[in-house]
Amino acid sequence: MSAPFIGKREYFPGIGRIPFEGRESDNPLAFKHYEADRKIGEKTMAEHLRFAVCYWHSFGNAGHDPFGPGTRNYPWDAGSSPIARAEAKLDAAFEFFTKLGVPYYCFHDIDLAPDADDVIEYEKHLQHMVALAKMRQQASGIKLLWGTANLFSHPRYMNGAATNPDFAVVARAAVQIKAALEATVELGGENYVFWGGREGYASLHNTHMKRELDHFARFLTMARDYGRSIGFKGNLLIEPKPMEPMKHQYDFDSATVAGFLHKHGLDKDFKLNIEANHATLSGHTFEHDLQVASDHGLLGSIDANRGNAQNGWDTDQFPTDLYDTVGAMMVVLRQGGLAPGGLNFDAKVRRESTDADDLFLAHIGGMDAFARGLEVAHALLARSPWETWRAERYASFDKGAGKDFEQGKLSLADLRELAAQQGEPAKRSGKQERYENLINQYLMR
Ligand code: XLS
Ligand code: NI
Ligand code: NI
């Protein structure tokens, strides 16, 4: 194990490289399930899970909410200038990534570098920080899973970015997308994400929805063409979310975005980045939206978090629910993995969690939850009767008339003839409880 990357000063003193100690350990700062090099099937846990830490919640969010300011005093926020603070934040971030032992990170342009209204100044800030990040990546071996642009915080984007009714704002949004694409290419980012922050509407009264959606497609097409022209070979990812901050967000869920991408001929270059809490906000389960994306051949990456059963907003909590992680990993394993995507912890510690080690505890919990989900999902698929049971449920389509139906060889009138001959079909139980029991049985092993 290489020594943790530590910059000019240490931001998490007293915490070393997080070890794997196994499920009997009570050491809060140790992994109980995540053992990076352990093989699950053909791949190691690290290769399956491809964990990433996000820059924004972990190093940029001191805990503010609509009712009050931040509760955490980050030592990297003490510097005298915006650039000095960004440099300190970068060192703290790389120290954290290496101590935790994750292979990837993700950022927005203005998490990494200070924002500026002046275009040239904004670009200079980002280039400066990208050069430093490149050095940190080389020194630590940590890689960029994806980059993105924040087109939702600045007040100019209050009515949207690419879907803004004012062309001047649409053009200004291009400044950030262009720069963030360049930063991603420079840092060898394996994906690029578009979360349509304020792409949606607050009221349909003043909104020309079709026109805004056409603008959105035009903008994404331009971004794709520019990305490809500067050598970006990875996946472009759209991250669906149904609401918040807007009343209605255009990238509502997997099904909506799949239709949009197909309609505009973007499905070859774009895939989806599915966030658990966004799926649940849209009235689905996490597993549902993953499955829809995967069925379209569009599941590219995951923002791993969870919502809260009582709160109706995006609470972005760390994933701890093993049922959820088993379900997610079943979808991922069935499609043969996530690469070049990964599992990015788009999650934040609670406002009341104010110690430096809380950030470690949160990530350790999330990584262990997904490692256990991986183990159980793999065992269910490889060793349990699950797949056989499910296949048997559809066996009537594997031969005879059922197979002819699937292959398009029968007409509606043919089906009527068959039904008239065979009489009333026998009832066949769905046996849901059998599967539910199997999950618990394997979880407890
Ligand atoms: C916010 C989104 C955001 C994206 C990146 O709800 O999840 O964090 O992942 O812009
Ligand atoms: Ni979210
Ligand atoms: Ni996200």
TrEMBL record:
Residue numbers annotated as active site: H108, D111
Positions of Mg(2+) 1 binding: E239, E275, D303, D346
Ranges in coiled-coil conformation: none
Main subcellular location: cytoplasm
Named cofactor requirement(s): Mg(2+)
Cofactor binding note: Binds 2 magnesium ions per subunit.
UniProt-annotated binding residues for Mg(2+) 2: E275, H278, D314, D316
A GO molecular function held by the record: isomerase activity
Annotated compartments: Cytoplasm
Keyword tags: Carbohydrate metabolism, Cytoplasm, Isomerase, Magnesium, Metal-binding, Xylose metabolism
PROSITE patterns cross-referenced by the UniProt entry: XYLOSE_ISOMERASE
EC identifiers of the protein: 5.3.1.5
Keyword Transmembrane: no
Reaction catalyzed: alpha-D-xylose = alpha-D-xylulofuranose
Family per similarity comment: Belongs to the xylose isomerase family.
Subunit text: Homotetramer.
The name this protein goes by in its record: Xylose isomerase
